[in-house]
Amino acid sequence: MSLLVSALILAVAFVVFSLTGHIQRKLKGGKFPKSLPSFPLIGSLLSLRSDLPPHLLFQKLQKTYGDLFSLMMGSHYVVVINSHQYAKEVLLKKGKIFAGRPNMVTTDLLSRGGKDIAFGNYSPGWKFHRKLVHLALFGDGSAALEKMVCQGVAEACCTFEHFLDSPLDIMPEVIRAVTNVICLLCFNSTYDNADPEFEKMLEYSQGIVNTVGKDSLIDIFPWLQLFPNEDLQTLKKCIAVRDKLLQKKFEEHKANYSSDSIDDLLDTLLKAKLNAENNNSSVHEERLTDDHLLMTVADIFGAGVETTSVTLAWMIVYLLHHPEVQKKIQEEIDSNIGFKRTPTMNDRGNLHLLSATISEILRIQPVSPLLIPHVALADSSIGEYTIPKETRVIINLWAIHHDEKEWKDPDVFDPSRFLDEDGKHIYTPSASFLPFGAGVRACLGEVLAKMELFLFTSWFLQRFSAEVPPGHPLPDLRGRFGIVLQPAKFKVQLKLRKAWENRKKSD
Question: Which residues lie closer than 8 Å to 295 by C-beta, 6 or more apart?
């Protein structure tokens, strides 16, 4: 090792040690959460060594350290929340105080330094940014959204009919359907089957999922960027592919832009940017650079495609494990809709078991078992505990959704827990049900996600029955931890339902 590298490491170590000491001194004089053992430089990393993914490890540590405990991630003071009471205090009661986001190497690369909504820090400009996107997505009501979702679902169902009665990896087509909904929203365009650009999008998306949000050492010790890192190089390559595709769409929109013809999200963002520049509005102009526009669209894609498609994957996995639930949902669809028309959002009030099953999937396999970390923007408290400014707060949604005090047999798949005595869907049987978060940092795409989950599942089960292919095992119920919790790859065998087949013949 060269003298220069040795000196650099020693200098970094001194800075980290000093920061750790500063935080520990700041923690004196208040009531603080019980803490995992911590050491200079490395913090609590020795206590976090485990084969368990973080959400399960934190749930295990909860038994020893309580519903709220602390640890040191290198020089960063971190509080972990495992109960809905503390979570709601952070998300709702003190949502603005805890609305910050941490600066991390991987997320800063992904968002160009927080120039998006998911990872951007809370500020007046951020609030304007989020409001603008919300209006662009949902300002015209749900009818236009429903039409886009139905178009994507219809195309996917037509494709599935070409692969009946044989083992099928269903997910690429599911992802394409969800992607096309987002494409219609963002670009007013869609991808055909096997489009090379779509294949690139699939590849870069999976690369990002595999490398972001895993509490890698490089996010704890940023100076590790100085050394070779395979995951970091993979992430940079995937981001470069993503940005090239987005830049192409962006340039096309700028070339064809007309304020009299606003067709999609990118047009709306361009219009807002131009208006802010023309009005010389410092807050708006600051937040709406080209980078902000591109990262916002990247955000919508990353959140809108991955989370919904992963939830649909878990839906199919659990229906394969519980064919009796699949059959009951089909009977519910048959009696309320039949086969003469396709389901619409107006049917949601009658398809109670289907709605309850979607809720149970969101509970038992939360797509983001650990919510994106929050940061305290000022000295505050959670419950009886003092929380210093700049504390990172991790909410363990997995532990909250599997809390035995709130849910009977929480590890058991049971849609009936979301049904009342009359068999009607209960939307919130427990205050601990937080699938989309809450407060100022709640999921922006909740309305769209719920629509996609309902329409895709109802259309799919109206037409098809899903079975485990002969000779294939049941899909694994353990997820792969990353920025989302993905099921392992699986195959399914689709059978066209007899009544739907008869309808097609009569048509």
Answer: 111, 112, 115, 116
